Amino acid sequence: MDPDIEQATHELLLRLAGRLPDQLLWRFRDWLGEGAMGTLARTLPRSLLKHRIDLDQTEYRLLVAGLIPHGADWHQVSSTLGVDDVTETRYTFTQSAPEWVNSVDSVSVLMHATLRGRPDVGEVRQSWRHLDVVGETGTKRVLLVTALSGLPRLTGELQRVLRVLGDEEPSVEVIPPRFDLPGYHRAALANSELVCLGAVGTGNRLVAA
Amino acid sequence: MVEVHDAPPMDGFSVPLRLHNLLLALAGRIDDSALTEARELIAHAHIDEAVELTTGTLIAGKITVSSAEQRELALVLEMSRSDATLANDLLVDEAELVHSHRFSGENQPEFGLAEALDRTLQVLPDVRSVHAVWRITPAGSVPGALPQRVVLVELGPEGNPPAVAFRVDSALRRAGLRSVVEVSGPGVARSTYHQSAGAAASPVWVAGSTQAPSYRPEPVAPTPPPAPVPAPEPVAEAAPSRHGIRTPAAESAPAPVVPIVQASPPPQPTAPPAVPAEQPARKSRSETRAERTSDLTSAEVAQLRRALAEDPEKGREIAAGKPSMHEVVELPALDLDDPSLSERDRALLRELHAELAERERAEAAKIRLNGASRSGGDRWNA
Questions:
Q1: From first to last of its 209 residues, what are the pLDDT tens digits of chain A?
Q2: Does ipTM top 0.90?
Q3: Per-residue pLDDT, B188
């Protein structure tokens, strides 16, 4: 697969966090991780239209670059370009885990065991996302990872781990270097805690230690 | 296997039902989230999204399908105005892979279900039975947490499988009972997956019905090609029913729902006649004897003829069902043209078969009566 095309689609799916429903987003990211570009090309533009998700110009360029070469319908793709500003995320984030998380957080433990010192992985952090207000309903973990290469595959791998551990619609944000962070990710990082550092951790700090 | 493998008559089904049946065939092969979401989409008339999700999951997961399944997916894609060329990316393999899953009825898979489904099952029409079981093996390329509760719902002809799948799933989610809900209506053969699940499942409840819930392994292979194992064997496997040792779960199920009571498993949908799994051993033996009437070897027939010739009274005993209990009695085929038979032998054979046929009729009538009284009559459909 063309790395530029893959990268473009990965960045687009990153930017859709908090806008496309979680149950679609993780699935599209899984398909990207498996290299199913033709499938994404035929389904993602339609999904955006059905959920009335407008793209800004940067996102639109990513969609064109990533999916037109794989047969996406031009009319559908062009209809996704919005004119108004993208609406801000309706989520808030907190650093501390909700009470219902066991005192032993098996996800953190497993992330630490598999990603600590791993090549191409920078920083691994987590935040807790809440719908509108901080509370137990609708609270879910957001994993934030910086990585240098193989981002879609790493996303897919971490999603599979989280699903086996019980998170049916995992939120795994694997962020490339020099990425202009959307508001969703900035808010999440501002309220996140460090889980572990990969092999390139110190050079890719997302937030001040 | 189910439906689409053998080019089956899906033509009579509506598009949503065709996709629903495809999803039944894919149960255990794609992840449970995809199954559940696709069923919800079908229930909400988003067939295009449902079939795209299903096809995409198969493609990305590199999960093989048969060419019949591929055709069916392409057809549903086309009929739902999706891009039918998506089906070209499917991995087709005609070799019927065995997706063996393991199920467990231990640790009360049915716990809390009757309460959670109370209202739902009062409202939804023609739900015949609900069973639950744990699946302890992962499904699909992106499996969820294990064990996974599988809820098996059997519908009558008035029920709408996709709608029931969604409603039952919603009710269980509201109650915090993570499950994947498999709903089958009449006219669709059970896949190996569903038969295995059904074999270990615990009853949640059944509605009053004379129709036998058919999640138990069927003693006769439902689709060609015929299974290499002798047909009656699955009955023997299902015989040590879990129901007898399980606490009944549906304490509060209201009328018209009839809670399953201990030691009353659904009758087997055998043909003919149906024999409940927990019939006493002697009845099983008598049926076996009847079934084997036409399966005698020539040596056995010869032996019987000799016995008849030596002792006509023994033949009468056999016909009256009072053979010596230590002997396995075999009956010959009614071959009155055999030149080696005397007139007396022929008369005896005729008599024997007439009596045997009468006994079979009586037995079948008795079992039908038992079945009806067990399931509490057809109140649901009244």
A1: 677 899 999 999 999 999 999 999 999 999 999 999 999 999 999 999 999 999 999 999 999 999 999 999 999 999 999 998 777 778 999 998 887 776 789 999 999 999 999 999 999 999 999 986 655 567 899 999 999 999 999 999 999 999 999 999 999 999 999 899 999 999 999 999 999 999 996 655 666 54
A2: yes
A3: 86
Hey, is the C-beta of B93 within 8 angstroms of any chain A C-beta?
no
DSSP 8-state assignment for residue A176: P
Among B83, B136, B178, which would you mutate to test the A interface (most chain A Cβ atoms within 10 Å of its Cβ)? B83
Min Cα distance A201 → chain B (Å) is 28
pTM for the model stands at 0.70
pLDDT tens per residue, range B200-217: 999 998 876 444 444 444
Which residue in the set A30, A46, A73 is minimally distant from B142, CB to CB? Answer: A30
**Above 80 in pLDDT, residue B133?**
yes
- What's CA B305's distance to the chain center, in Å? 40
Alpha-carbon distance of A70 to A66, in angstroms, equals 8
Q: Angle at the Cα of B53 (from B50 to B58), degrees rounded to 5?
A: 130
Beta bridge partners of B135: B103, B148
Q: Which of A69-73, A123-127, B180-184, B231-235 shows the lowest mean pLDDT across its residues?
A: B231-235
Which member of B62, B86, B145 has the closest CB to residue A42?
B86
Contact check, Cβ <8 Å, A46/B52: yes
Q: Rounded CA gap, A122 and B322, in Å?
A: 83
Spell out which residues of chain B touch residue A46, defining contact as CB-CB under 8 Å: 48, 52
What's chain B's Rg over C-alpha atoms? 24
Contact between chains at A27 and B56 (C-beta distance less than 8 A): yes
A31 and chain B: CB distance < 8 Å anywhere? yes
Say which residue, B379 or A136, is predicted with more confidence: A136
Interface of B with A in 9-38 (CB under 8 A): 31, 33-34, 37
Best of B46, B48, B142, B177 to disrupt the A interface (most A CBs within 10 Å) is B142
Token duo for residue A12: 């687009």
Chain A residues whose beta carbon lies within 8 Å of the beta carbon of residue B141: 34
- Structural domains in chain B, sorted by start: 1-97 (no CATH), 99-208 (3.30.300), 278-377 (no CATH)
- Name every chain B residue with its beta carbon within 8 A of the beta carbon of A160: 142-143
Is A54 in CB contact (< 8 Å) with chain B? no
CA B290 – CA A30 distance, rounded (Å): 57
Measured CA to CA, the distance from residue A206 to residue A201 in angstroms comes to 9
* A46/B276: higher pLDDT: A46
| CB atoms B49 and A50 under 8 Å | yes
Q: Any bridge partners for residue A67, and if so which?
A: none
> Would the CB atoms of B145 and A31 count as touching at under 8 Å?
no
**Spatial CB neighbours of B70, under 8 Å, sequence gap ≥ 6:** B87, B90, B92
